[in-house]
Amino acid sequence: MVESTNRLLKKELIYRNHCTSLEQLRSDLNDYVWWSDSQRPRSTLGYRSPNEFTQQGLVL
User: How many whole angstroms from its chain centre is CA 47?
Assistant: First the structure.
């Protein structure tokens, strides 16, 4: 699972952006994690975001 997460992070954030400072990288990473947890749907969660899934009281 960690390898899959790292692959997605690199594909969707690192390779698409050019950070010029450590602060910008941190900010971009925080934005990506927020988006991934609250907006990005997952097929394993019935095409819901992780936050939406847990708010509905669902469990795997």
Answer: 14
